[in-house]
């Protein structure tokens, strides 16, 4: 079953007087449980596509559906609820709240979902233990390394059991050892919990880990390779 469906998706931006086409007609289906990398040179449209799939931006034309819900048919409040319940985000810049501890950052999404404080604390501590940060739960982002902050961001993205996690250049600020460790963690989440992951990346290591590689060029899909069938 397809979790994500993009049909004839077009998106353009204005840079001064110039119109730049980021996506020129994308057709893409991603099955539940996928582990997919969107790759390509800067300006190929991969981050734009990721943002559109996450409902953070809207296409100029075409349609996007996640878990059978077409974004076109949703009000902003309904889209926000779908994102909250179904989609986890891992941003390149981490986007952690600086005044909150690691555990409180992980709890934040669950608080928005209305999870009780006792359950939030329990689940946050469990997931931080799983990502190897059990002893750092009480530290703020400024007291953590880049790799540790990224792990907190991953924990926050997956703690609420989303159907889909979107990761924008998740290894960009990490050394190769931390990057590999993070990818192995996400691969385990994918296998054990059937969470679907979609990455935008320049990193060959991410491409190697991915089960499916979608290469973008000039806003179009240049290659779509299912590595599990090789």
CATH topological fold name: Rossmann fold
Kindly state the number of beta strands.
10
Residue share in β-strands: 25-35%
Report the uncertain regions: none
For the largest beta-sheet, the strand count, sense and barrel status come to:
6 strands, mixed
SSE ordering: EEEHEEHEHHHEHEHEE
Strand order of the largest sheet: 6-7-8-3-9-10
Describe this structure as you would to a colleague.
The protein has 230 residues and is α/β, with parallel strands linked by helices. It has a single domain, classed as Rossmann fold (3-Layer(aba) Sandwich). It has 7 helices and 10 strands. Strand 9 and strand 10 form a beta hairpin. The protein is globular.
Tell me briefly what this model is.
The protein is α/β, with parallel strands linked by helices.
Write the layout of secondary structure elements.
Blueprint lengths: L1 E14 L2 E14 L3 E5 L6 H8 L7 E6 L2 E2 L5 H11 E4 L11 H12 L3 H14 L15 H13 L5 E5 L7 H18 L2 E6 L2 H6 L2 E6 L2 E7 L4
Parallel strand pairs: 3-8, 3-9, 6-7, 7-8
Antiparallel strand pairs: 1-2, 1-4, 4-5, 9-10
List its traits:
single chain, 230 residues, alpha/beta, Rossmann fold, six-stranded mixed β-sheet, 10 strands, nucleotide-binding, transmembrane transporter activity, ATP hydrolysis activity
């Amino acid at each position: 079953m397809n979790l994500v469906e993009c049909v004839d998706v077009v998106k353009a931006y204005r840079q001064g007087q110039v119109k730049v086409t980021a996506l020129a007609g994308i057709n893409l289906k991603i099955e539940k449980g996928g582990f997919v990398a969107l790759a390509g040179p800067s300006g190929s449209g991969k981050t734009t596509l990721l943002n559109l799939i996450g409902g953070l931006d809207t296409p100029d034309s075409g349609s996007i559906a996640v878990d059978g819900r077409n974004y076109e048919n949703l009000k902003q409040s309904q889209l926000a609820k779908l994102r909250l319940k179904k989609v986890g985000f891992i941003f390149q810049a981490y986007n952690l709240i600086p005044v909150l501890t690691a555990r409180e950052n992980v709890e934040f999404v669950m608080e928005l979902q209305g999870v009780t404080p006792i359950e939030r604390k329990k689940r946050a501590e469990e997931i931080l233990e799983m990502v190897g940060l059990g002893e750092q739960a009480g530290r703020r982002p400024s007291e953590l390394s880049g790799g540790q902050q990224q792990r907190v961001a991953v924990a926050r993205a997956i703690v609420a059991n989303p159907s889909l996690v979107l990761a924008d250049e998740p290894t960009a600020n990490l050394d190769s050892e931390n990057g590999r460790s993070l990818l192995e963690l996400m691969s385990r989440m994918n296998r054990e919990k059937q969470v679907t992951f979609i990455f935008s990346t320049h990193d060959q290591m991410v491409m190697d880990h991915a089960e499916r590689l979608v290469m973008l060029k000039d806003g179009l899909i240049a290659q779509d390779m299912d590595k599990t069938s090789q």
